[in-house]
């Protein structure tokens, strides 16, 4: 093979390597959004249905945050003076007939989700469904297959998350209404006192505060200060509160993740 032939072969090899690298990069974007479409209204926002609010660097990021949330139907973009954006995820859309709260806003833009497609494998595998529900800056999903506490934690971590940690009564009520109320089964969340009786922690390492103890249902935890095996915490199905139970019990469970982990 002459010199020109070797040069051509080298160029072909380099191009093939670049194609492979780009394909792998695309595959790494689990849940990347393709073909999702939105209506747009400049100078307007939808009020009263916010399920999450966060600062974002681009409008595209806000759209992605909405698309991966099963309960997100629209979003508001508010432009800050420094050029950054506030992203508000909404549980309703003005196209659904909610027009009285569709108001003018000088720094706002409204986007109503018209079509939802989540794609993996560089856009080769797409679906309109997502198991994750957006609330505040997190995403939650229910896994309805009963397992013990440790297996639930392991399975959530395999899904780029952990068992749900609950930071407020508002968040607890949302999870109860969405995943547990009148379902006939308790649900694992990430609180436990396995390491030291009566000293509760979250499996994802979230700080545990005195306020977290107010998340318990009346009379719970009923074994917090006794030498027993009720070291793992569930979300009740009959009342908006937490309780303790043996970790070997098999229950459905609630996983939690965030945008950065889903798109890691």
Could you characterize what this model shows?
Pfam families: Lectin_C, PAN_1. The protein is an alpha+beta fold and 264 residues long. The chain has two domains: 37-118, 3-Layer(bba) Sandwich (Hepatocyte Growth Factor); 130-261, Mannose-Binding Protein A, subunit A (Mannose-Binding Protein A, Chain A). It is built from five helices and 16 strands. Strands 2-6-4-5-3 form a five-stranded antiparallel β-sheet, with helices on one face. A four-stranded antiparallel β-sheet has the order 9-10-16-11, sandwiched between helices. The relative contact order is 0.15. Mean pLDDT is 83; it is low at 12-34.
Short description:
With 264 residues, this protein is of the alpha+beta class.
Structural class: alpha+beta
Number of domains: 2
CATH superfamily of the largest domain: Mannose-Binding Protein A, subunit A
CATH class membership of the largest domain? Alpha Beta
Fold-level CATH name of the largest domain: Mannose-Binding Protein A, Chain A
Mean pLDDT: 83
Low-confidence parts, pLDDT < 50 over ≥5 residues?
12-34
Biggest beta sheet attributes: 5 strands, antiparallel
Shape: globular
Distance between the termini: 44 Å
The percent range for strand residues is: 25-35%
Along the chain, the helix and strand elements come as HEEEHEEEEEEEHEHEEEEEH
CATH architecture classification of the largest domain: Roll
């Amino acid at each position: 093979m002459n010199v020109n032939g070797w040069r051509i072969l080298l160029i072909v090899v380099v191009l093939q390597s670049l194609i492979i690298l780009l394909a792998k990069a695309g595959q790494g974007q689990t849940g990347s959004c393709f073909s999702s479409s939105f209506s747009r209204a400049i100078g307007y926002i939808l009020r009263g249905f916010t399920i999450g609010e966060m600062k974002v660097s681009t409008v595209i990021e806000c759209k992605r945050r909405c698309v991966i949330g099963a309960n997100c139907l629209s979003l508001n973009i508010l432009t800050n003076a420094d050029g950054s954006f506030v992203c508000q995820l909404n549980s309703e859309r003005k196209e659904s007939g909610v027009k009285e709260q569709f108001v003018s806003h000088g720094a706002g833009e409204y986007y109503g989700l018209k079509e939802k497609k989540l794609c993996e494998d560089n856009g080769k595998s797409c679906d309109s469904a997502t198991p994750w529900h957006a609330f505040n800056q997190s995403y939650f999903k229910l896994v309805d297959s009963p397992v013990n506490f440790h297996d639930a934690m392991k399975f959530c971590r395999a899904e780029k998350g952990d068992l749900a940690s609950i930071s407020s009564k508002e968040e607890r009520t949302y999870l109860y209404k969405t995943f547990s109320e009148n379902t006939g089964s308790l649900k694992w969340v990430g609180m436990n006192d396995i390491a030291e009786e009566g000293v509760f922690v979250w499996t994802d390492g979230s700080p545990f505060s005195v306020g977290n103890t107010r998340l318990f249902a009346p009379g719970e935890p009923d074994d917090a200060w006794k030498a027993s095996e009720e070291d793992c915490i569930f979300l009740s199905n009959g009342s908006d509160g937490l309780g303790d139970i043996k970790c070997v019990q098999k229950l459905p469970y609630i996983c939690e993740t965030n945008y950065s982990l889903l798109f890691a």
